[in-house]
Task: structure prediction
Amino acid sequence: MNVRRHHISAAALAAVTALGLGTLTACSSDSAAAGNTDKFDVVASFYPMAFLAEQIGGEHVHVTSLTQPGQEPHDLEISAKQTAQLEESDAALYLKGLQPSVDEAIGQSPVSTKIDAAGLTTLKEHGTEAGGHEDEHAEDEHAHEDEHAHEHEHAHEHEGGKDPHVWLDPVKYAEVAEGVGKAFEKADPDHAADYRKNTEALVKKLNDLDTTFETGLADKKNSVFITTHAAFGYLAERYGLTEEAISGLDPESEPSGARVKELQEMAKADGVTTVFYETLVSDRTAKTLAGDAGLKTDVLDPLEGITDASRGDDYFQVMEANLEALRTALGTK
Result:
């Protein structure tokens, strides 16, 4: 659809085609690269953005993802081929503060429509604790933030340490969806009515998911859960839970021995049963903490990518699996 056509070599075309298409289903074509179709060509930074683009764009969009299936999105470095891919696109959809190399590449790209999901909702700062008992642990929380600030400073330097994981709160994700829908309507007005209808349908499903979480977590024995990666702060705040993370916002950061010991003591005091880990990062730290404290481990998926190891084929299925894991760990009826 893009009028700024460039000729791409067959080799480059093949390379671009291979980028991230395995995670997308509704509108992607294995034979066409971004910018090389008659549809509204959208490059998305990683799975939650690609999912929005597909759900809202429907048959009118061709979506490609910069992050390949199974790749940890925080670690993504943009290649020259991906930079060319951006130039061929009609729109770029990303979440500023999650992937610094994507922020830089899109900032320098001539793509006419740039949609920053972080600007479509309100971001908050989260330390290694979020939600629930903030007043009770306020002093500890600030200590944790200081201790881990250096660990995630680089990964989130563009957003001043604010937590970008808004898609794990269905209400915030719905706010982002509404903004993306309006941006699509403006950029591709010929199909505005369909984008509006698709956005409304997606927002309704997200509102229904919010109700399912609220109901599913209503009768819980415990409200504290431990994760390896501080990705679930917004979800914890939404449903009256407390997330205690072993590490900060960067999933690759290593926890201190003092933090591990503190969590073991907290788990015993608060009756925590489970340490959650995620599919795209090693479970070694979770299993070490759990083993020493006599706890179980389970997956709580931050949905940064869908792979064969995911408990579901799309956002809604994996979020429902997350809810069941939380219900088991928190002792719901």
